[in-house]
Amino acid sequence: MAKYDNKFYADRAKRFIPGGAHTYSKGDDQFPANAPSVITRGKGCQLWDAEDNQFTDFALSLGTVVLGHAYEPVLDAVREELVKGVNFVRPSIIEGELAELICDIVPCAEMVKLAKHGSDVTTASIKLARAYTGKERVIRCSADAFNAVHDWFIGSTVVDRGVPKAVKDLTLQFEYNNIDSLSALFMQYPNEIACVIFEPISFIEPEPGFLQAVKELCEINGAILIFDEVVSGFRFSLGGGQEYCGVTPHLAAFGKAMANGFSVSALAGRRDIMELGGIDGEQERVFLLSTTHGGETHSIAAAIKTINTIKEYNIIDHIWKTGGLIKQGLSKAAEDAGISDLIEVGGYDCKPAFAMLGSDGKSCMTTRTLFLQETIKRGVLMPYIVPSFSHSPQIITNAMEKITEAFAVINKARQEGNIAGYVEGDVVKPVFRKFN
């Protein structure tokens, strides 16, 4: 036993942090009772808690760690900047280097503004679109799980407490792959739509011509098309989902995988739109993004090294192959354990998805809790799947052996008609819910 156990650190966090974590998806309500309540270190795709228990990590910090925890070449680039100071009164040289690199690889990027978080840049894109068009309403996609922490998005979810009604009313929703639902909104609110923002590609495959049709609708109606590429960027393709799908938006937001866990995000887009956030010209200014820490050199160095590593070692190809192996492994493990009807495996190979089901064939939090509980007992952390450069075929094979064992427990519980009875503690809950 360590000097202080997991509970000591977790209890301290709960005393001083609302929810016990700074990201809701890391909260206790997202994990079973036996989950490691704190993590002390990581290497590659392995994690250790305060009691030195080791886990194979398939979540990779919400998709930010594309190369692996503590990837040495990135750390070397960070160390090189740390000793020179990390934040200055004037721009650093590497701010321009990262901006130019993004413009070289992202189809829509003619100018770039850096920040720290995905929400920073998606929300900045909304402001920029409103300023450029002179309109106020925003259309987002109902299929998107999360676009920003800010009111324009949160006000359109079930956890809208604290968001003014006037703000809520400005955000509309359309259905993915349903171009008629988008067209109807443009007809209902003529000359009022500033922008359409959504993830161009996630778990659902866009129907042929859908993304292009969205762009054409935007341009016909004088609206800005914004791709939220915080998740898809540097994963589907080096140039993001827009490169993979062959449709170029007017603006795009990037984050997560671009710096291997370090905090960097980027708003990229067409020059005539982006220039509104500048300090030249005679027109009225747009106070776009002004983040004290947006120019931190060590995080920017991490992004440059990460992106160049993705290019040099063809990490995108590795991610696709790795995700495919994980999907195949999950399906085979479920078949071997006799519970193929209790798991649904899907998504793109570079961004796999799975859901644990109940006897009615619908997503079931009780079955999910038991799956997480039993895999954690066997040293596997898989609340969701994020393939990384650190996942080798052997690691996946070893993990699937443990997952097969966990599936066998679920099958036993199902045969006894008592899946809930096998859960040791509370059942996990959705992040987006009205009440605790």
Layout of strands and helices, then pairs:
Elements: H1 6-16, E1 41-43, E2 46-48, E3 54-57, H2 60-63, H3 72-82, H4 93-105, E4 111-115, H5 118-133, E5 137-141, H6 151-154, H7 165-168, E6 171-174, H8 179-188, E7 193-198, H9 210-220, E8 224-229, H10 241-245, E9 251-254, E10 265-269, H11 271-274, H12 297-312, H13 315-337, E11 343-348, E12 351-356, H14 365-377, E13 380-381, H15 393-415
Parallel strand pairs: 3-13, 5-6, 5-7, 7-8, 8-9
Antiparallel strand pairs: 1-2, 2-3, 4-10, 9-10, 11-12
What does it look like?
It is a single chain. The protein is an alpha/beta fold. The protein is built from 15 helices and 13 strands. A 7-stranded mixed beta sheet has the order 4-10-9-8-7-5-6, sandwiched between helices. The chain has a 4-stranded mixed beta sheet with strand order 1-2-3-13. Helix 4 runs parallel beside helix 12 (297-312), helix 13 (315-337) runs parallel beside helix 15 and helix 14 (365-377) crosses helix 15 (393-415). It is globular and about 70 Å long.
